[in-house]
Amino acid sequence: MMLASMHISENGWDDQRAYAGSKSFSIPRNGWINDSPIQASSFGLLRGSSAWKANASTVDIILKGPMKIAGWNELDQNPNNDTIGFWAASDTVMSSWSYTIVSRLHGCYTGAYLGCGSEDSSCQSMESFNLATGKDHAMFLKYVDIADSRNTGIWDWAQDVKANGAIPVFMYDPYGGLGSIDTAKMEYFATKCKELDTEVFIIFGHEMNGNWYAWGQKPAEYIAKFKTVAEIFHRIAPRAEMCWIPNQNWGYPWGGTDHGDGYTEYYPSGSGTYGEYVDWVGLVFYDKDYDETGHVSPGFFLSNIRNGQDGVDFYQAFSIGKNKPMLIGETGAFDPNMDPTAPGARDALSDAEQDSYKNEWISYVYDAAELEAELPRLKGIMYFNVLKTEPKVETQIHQGGSAFLNVLADYRIPDDPNVYRQKISDPYFLSASPVLYYPDFTDTTRSDSWRSFLVLQNPSGSDAKVHLEIRSRGGTILYSGKQTIPPSGSIAIRPRNLVGADCSGSVRAASDQLIQGTCQINRNNNEMSMEYNALDSGATTLYYPDFTDTTNAEGWRSWLVVQNPTSLAANMQLEIRSREGSVLFSGSQAIPAHGVAAIRPRNIVGSDCAGSATITSDQPIAGTCQITRNSNKMCMSYTASDRGSNELYYPDFTDTANPSSWRSWLVIQNPSASPANLNLEIWSREGNLLYSGNQIIPAHGVGAIRPRSVTGADCAGSVVVTSDQPIIGTCQITRNSNEMCMSYNAMDQVSTTLSYPDFTDTANPDGWRSWLVLQNPTAADANIELEIRSREGDLLYRGDQIIPAHGVNAIRPRGLVGSDCSGSVTITSDQPIVGTCQITRNNNLMCMSYTAASLA
């Protein structure tokens, strides 16, 4: 019995570790996984989330008896190849043997509640929280009163969760008491959950063992209602997971009625028509400095789960004993010292002490090694990230009449140090499905007007199920639905075809597989076109290195297009500067929730202008710059960047003195307050150094560098720019006396695996023709393997090439395939490389370009 899988790099893998029995092994780059065979009755490959695959399931092999386990990983840069072999073997011929294969989720979902409720004093968007914590969370929580089941805002929120690639979790509670539940409203809610067409978690009557809710400490009535609710959801919404989540039992019954150990008497055992009533078990678990030490008791989180009041081991009794995955439905910490309210009063903690207290709790709860060893069935933790007023908090000393009243409790994650961000960066903590953002499209039926294609590539070996959300510029949902991309395939989606009418706006695409994408926009019967890369995240700062905006329709005109994918309005600050660095405009603008703003710099500056723009926002945003000329007879676009870098790569340029031929500009923005001292290295395609020298860009300024001007002759090749200040760049390329142009973003990172989501390459010079341009910025030859696939995912070509040190290869897919073709490309290399795709049509009367995406 052998398991085969892939592990090519630290970030590119299907499996991150291997195990045999109780021993775990890291996967080497090349060689034996374990130095000598291990005698064990079980073995497997531990999965999770990498740059290649999201939340992959672990595969376990359980043998009938002990066998020798060994494994090997082969050095290979191609993520489509199996590199790992991990197997069980015997020294003798066995008359028979058997095994069991188990697939399970390895790791723990990250989740959160972000406030925004009627009792909360804080509200944060999912995108903003994800950005601050460094991980796209897999679950988000909303509290719903069953009586309010028909509230349309619930489903707007759920659609937003789904569009973020996450799972909606509902605390679904009967605030009017167990006798007030309206079956018709529950059935409506279950029907709406089914219509979401995604996994949904339903936590009915949480903390039912407490005495502070109307449904609390009524075990027999609660169990009967739980079973009724479970039957309704399991019947109507098969993808709904029913969760049983009591409060941790330390202190039970908290002054109320004691019915037992605080857990067992509330559990809805048994099965109904559609299976067991309970799908998940879990706890609500906070720390509020009960013993008043100003510190979290070491081990309190784990020990209270494994050895709670009355010696109950919740994990053993309910997760293992009932064979259920476990969820921490709420967790957080704060110390009521922070708000000493009469009659209880103590010396208040400082902000730093309060943050330290919360970080102690976070460190214990999010200890990946301990969770993996002690609570492997714990599959989700929901952090309670909110500022709210707690009516009453009791501690060891302050109870009853001396309890803390109306305490402003700040459970929110501390910013500095952000221990939570550090802890969940461990790959054991699972993220949401990958999401791509398309800030801008316009799609009409008119061939002489704007038409848009959303191109999505699935480089994985499994179907990619993509949830697509198309919104108008005002933020209204125009379409929400699913698309499937075949393994190693790609699709080109016309928004108009899905919406059913001419439309413009923005798009979000969430997928269960890692996907890449571009947006192609053309006009005038394919006589002009532009293309930009879909973005995999938003940011609170965007840089636009270059624009020129005039009133002359025959001249350059520019639009800064900004998408706000969040559920809150984005308040932006725009700063527009000249190429010399002078401020031309500084002011504010708001984008509605889920909306798009298309900003003409000239309109806010008040005159023709050229330069750069920097936008900051209180919500994560994404952006592109669209530039046109000659009364919309030519256009180009690039994506706004979220950061500067001290090193930029330009894979391709051709620069001549002939205005009818190719001309190139390396545009570089210096957003800092100090001059940027640059070193430029310009290399020919063969890898010969054409120029090495220095340039200075003034503070907040822009440099537009013609390679020909510094080399002294017509030239083509690649460029590497280093700087003592973070910089951002684009390459602008024109032809035919500015009757055609294209632009691409300079890259700040190299990779050993690149993907090209889209190309079409024909022998007809009037049709589409494509070049995959690859730069090798290293001092060693790059050995690359190309895999070209059709849009359906069929292999059209696989082969090797060499890019010389510091050289460039410009590859025509048709030249390798041997016939006209279209689809996508994956390239692996033994050296770090970067790339662009250049696409032309109509005998070089139109062109567009985009950058290859990294897969590792």
Summarize the entry for a quick read:
The protein is mainly beta and 856 residues long.
Q: Which radius of gyration do the C-alpha atoms yield?
A: 29 Å
- Count, helices: 13
Structural class, from helix and strand content?
mainly beta
Q: The biggest beta sheet, please?
A: 8 strands, antiparallel
Explain how this protein is built:
The strands form 9 sheets. Strands 1, 2, 3, 4, 5, 6, 7 and 8 form an 8-stranded antiparallel beta sheet that branches. This protein has an 8-stranded parallel β-barrel with strand order 9-10-11-12-13-16-17-18, surrounded by 5 helices. It is built from 13 helices and 51 strands. By secondary structure, the chain is mainly beta. 13% of the residues lie in helices and 46% in strands. Helix 3 (183-196) packs across helix 4 (219-236).
SSE layout:
Blueprint: E1 2-5, E2 17-20, E3 23-26, E4 31-32, E5 38-46, E6 57-73, E7 84-89, E8 99-105, E9 108-113, H1 126-133, E10 139-145, H2 152-163, E11 167-173, H3 183-196, E12 200-204, H4 219-236, E13 240-244, E14 271-272, E15 275-276, E16 280-287, H5 300-306, H6 314-320, E17 326-333, H7 351-365, H8 368-374, E18 378-384, E19 387-393, E20 404-410, H9 419-424, E21 429-430, E22 435-443, E23 451-457, E24 464-472, E25 477-485, E26 490-493, H10 495-499, E27 503-511, E28 516-523, E29 528-533, E30 539-549, E31 557-563, E32 570-578, E33 583-591, E34 596-599, H11 601-605, E35 609-629, E36 634-639, E37 645-655, E38 663-669, E39 676-684, E40 689-697, E41 702-705, H12 707-711, E42 715-735, E43 740-745, E44 751-761, E45 769-775, E46 782-790, E47 795-803, E48 808-811, H13 813-817, E49 821-841, E50 846-851, E51 853-854
Parallel strand pairs: 9-10, 9-18, 9-21, 10-11, 11-12, 12-13, 13-16, 16-17, 17-18
Antiparallel strand pairs: 1-7, 2-3, 2-5, 4-6, 5-6, 6-7, 6-8, 14-15, 19-20, 22-27, 23-26, 23-28, 24-25, 24-27, 28-29, 30-35, 31-34, 31-35, 32-33, 32-35, 35-36, 37-42, 38-41, 38-42, 39-40, 39-42, 42-43, 44-49, 44-51, 45-48, 45-49, 46-47, 46-49, 49-50
Helix pairs in contact: 3-4
